[in-house]
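Journal club prep — side note

Before the paper discussion, L.F. wants everyone to see what a predicted structure for a comparable chain looks like in token form. Sequence:
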Amino acid sequence: MDPIVYVVLAVVAAAVGYWVVRGRARALAPGRRPDALPPRASADDLDDAGDAAADTDPGDISEPDTSPGDLPPVMVPAPRPPADAASVPLPQQRPAGPKRQTALTRPATSDAARYRQGLSKTRGGFVSRLADLFRGKPKVDDGLRDDVEEVLFTADIGTTTAAKLMDRVTEALDRKEVADPDAVWSALREACLEVLDRQASPPVYDVDPLPYVLLAIGVNGVGKTTTLGKLAAMHVAAGRKVLLVAGDTFRAAATEQLEVWARRVGCDIHKGKDKADPSSVIFDGISRGRREGHDVVLCDTAGRLHTRTELMDELGKVGRAAAKALSKGRPDSDAVTSAHDIYLVLDATIGQNALAQAKMFKETMDFTGLVVTKLDGTAKGGVVLGICDEMEIPIRFIGIGEGVEDLREFDPAAFADALLARDFGTDAVA
């Protein structure tokens, strides 16, 4: 068969197929019933059409008319009507619950009220017993004097300090035949202030050259790391650039604890390797503070048992390392012999043992101030009197709670007033 015939047959078959599809599309258009579709061409009809096409001259074949008017309509979905804005509920913001107070956001309480609350347990001890003795204005006799003496000497204030307080109370009792509670309390307050007020100059943080360096020393568990964290918060709040030095490389999690404080207060931290020599960590930390322009460098140290001579000797080595770091690069005439301040941290809950620790540490390192912690958790807060009286070293800070604001600069007058307050049962802080 001639190839032209094959071409003609192919064109005819395509045209027939087109018309069949077009018919089905028009039948499915809107307004037309499916039963109005034209009948499907049978195989015999297709063969007849092919034969007819074979007898047709190829030159007479023309393309079918496919004007746009004959094409099936395009189905475009109708747009959805806009929803009424008033009928669409807006997303509601969940009401904010009460802001959780943390150690850094808790509102500050007045010094007097906070002192009173922190010393409430101590007042419930020997101070409460003294108040009971003078309730009702008893007659002054040897029995009353003996009772007062017993209370003072069994309190954790030390025998020397107890004797001083007893002398002042006796003077007040000997003036009248009937005990005057107000006079006794006034005499006790004056005696306490004489013991507590060391007339020490406040710490100088704006040293020249910077940074100001503080070493915290003490036995394990007294709260050195926590104290340094709270001191860092105080310095940051004052606008100073602070560096914490994790010099306690022996206690498990000591460095991690200091890291938590550094994140909370927003200051830098210097860490050494695990089990590294504490002296080298202190030296590198102070050197970094000088190099990076920190205002304050607070150094933690490993806890030392005051009964272990070799451990106390290592503490002296730490002090020499701090002095060497501060003297580096300076002329010999400007050499530094120690850190600017060395604070001995004592735990008030151990009572007179805290005084024994202070005496042992004094033999190894010449510390410049004391920090007495955990006063809110013990009835032995009177140990502060004994420490001040026998050590003759100023108490710089006291811990009367867990919050950052509960590490307070020591105020002798506020401490004496809170210690000797007689209106028991009103210690709750609003």
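L.F.'s comment for the group: The chain is about 45% helix and 10% strand. Keep this in mind when we get to the figures.
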